[in-house]
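ok so I'm stuck.
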Amino acid sequence: MPPFFTVITSTYNAAATLPHLLDSLASQTCRDFNWIVQDGGSSDETMKIVAQYHSLLPEILTNSGKDEGIYDAWNKAIDIWQDKIGEWILFLGCDDSLNEKNTLEIVKKYIEESPSHKMFFAGNLIQVNSRGEQVSQYDIKNTDDAFKIRSYRMPVNHPALFTKREIILKYKFDASFKIAGDYEFIRRAWLNPDQMQLLGFVTTHMQIGGISGNESSRKLHLAENLRIFNKYGTVKGYIWYIDSLLYNVKIKIKNILEKHKYGNKFWEILKKIRKHTLK
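replied:
not stuck anymore, here's the structure
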């Protein structure tokens, strides 16, 4: 019988960061979960490290072979282990971790006490640096606002999003995306605000420096977002796209203004105008 939770991770030469994730999973007080790792054919110690945790996790399911990116890997994990997947699925990266030892225990109780029609449960997320120090925290205020936000950017943090099995099996991920596939999935699969419930507490730590935050991937990220805006046709999306294109221009303007006496005040005014426009 499948467990309550399934955690899915795609890996590729992740030996340096994987133990952090696995220690987090091994310490969970809730044991009603399995972990699926879809490896891209690592040449380092990744799969040896995975093997060391077989006795520490309730169940580990592994497959290794070439893939076409993270979303292709996730789809492969879903296809290969479809009969083993739990009722609620969480996608965690190699350098992610759960917030507390009882995180899954608390989330399980919360889900069990919630209406059965909910398809998504979204937690809050803390972003950390390579030393584990908090850099920022992302909290979702309410589902109505998040649902509106989804028309022009990712409204939730995927490593803190528990998704019902039937939704994952129905929609899966568009593997033609390399960075924004989780956003496209949310745009396509989340159909009304009431399908999602907010947990209201931090569930996940995510290390900064992932592919979507890499400056060298910025152009691809923008191009993929434009594809999503073109597909779903939202004016606000195009406004955000233009704003993102102007990122480097904004930095140059900020640097120029900082050299002038009233530059900082003028910059704050510009920020307020931008915030109002993108709201």
